[in-house]
């Protein structure tokens, strides 16, 4: 169990300490992972940005992921998406895509997203249940030509880690229990991160 997200981030930074001096690009999945990304970027003397992906919730059961959509518009659907009517899935996809566009305008209004091409890229999340969101982030970034693509997270079940290992060059996951139920079960403090905090963290300098 982690005290909070920063506790997990400190442990991930230690596991990734070999990247210090190599100008890594730390891309956090909002909102929860942004405080983690700030700590890791500062520890490794790298840059911080967000990678914008959103889980697609099942119609009538929004907590159940049936896929994910990325900022560039690409959609990755799980097998389970076939259970639902196509127009319902399309409607959910459009809703999440609009939210991503609005988030980018709010989070980094004075600059473009940092280009991952040729960089060592670390995608950070607090945890991943199905892997849908992290998988979408990795697939989107892979097409943009990073030198190395690493997925880093606090907790995920073993089958999710195995899935992500097919998409990333390396997966660093601190906890991989078989009895995984939800990401929040691994954090004593799993408070929601608000947009104002995300904006402040993305605008702050190293240290």
UniProtKB/TrEMBL annotation:
<protein>
    <submittedName>
        <fullName>Phosphoribosyltransferase</fullName>
    </submittedName>
</protein>
<dbReference type="Pfam" id="PF00156">
    <property type="entry name" value="Pribosyltran"/>
</dbReference>
<keyword id="KW-0328">Glycosyltransferase</keyword>
<dbReference type="InterPro" id="IPR000836">
    <property type="entry name" value="PRTase_dom"/>
</dbReference>
<dbReference type="GO" id="GO:0016757">
    <property type="term" value="F:glycosyltransferase activity"/>
</dbReference>
<dbReference type="InterPro" id="IPR029057">
    <property type="entry name" value="PRTase-like"/>
</dbReference>
<keyword id="KW-0808">Transferase</keyword>
<feature type="domain" description="Phosphoribosyltransferase">
    <location>
        <begin position="6"/>
        <end position="183"/>
    </location>
</feature>
């Amino acid at each position: 169990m982690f005290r909070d997200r920063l506790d997990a981030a400190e442990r991930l930074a230690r596991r990734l300490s070999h990247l210090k001096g190599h100008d890594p690009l730390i891309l956090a999945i909002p909102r929860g992972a942004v405080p983690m990304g700030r700590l890791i970027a500062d520890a490794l003397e790298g840059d911080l940005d967000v990678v914008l992906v959103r889980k697609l919730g099942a119609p009538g059961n929004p907590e159940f992921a049936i896929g994910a959509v990325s900022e560039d518009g690409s959609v990755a659907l799980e097998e389970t998406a076939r259970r639902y009517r196509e127009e319902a899935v399309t409607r959910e996809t459009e809703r999440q895509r609009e939210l991503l566009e609005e988030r980018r305008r709010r989070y980094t209004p004075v600059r473009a997203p940092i280009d991952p091409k040729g960089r060592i890229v670390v995608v950070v999340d607090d945890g991943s249940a199905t892997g849908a969101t992290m998988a979408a982030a990795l697939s989107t970034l892979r097409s943009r030509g990073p030198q190395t693509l690493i997925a880093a997270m606090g907790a995920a079940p073993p089958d999710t880690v195995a899935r992500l290992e097919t998409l990333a060059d390396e997966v660093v996951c601190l906890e991989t229990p078989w009895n995984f139920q939800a990401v929040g079960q691994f954090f004593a403090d799993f408070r929601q991160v608000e947009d104002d905090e995300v904006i402040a963290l993305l605008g702050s300098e190293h240290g």
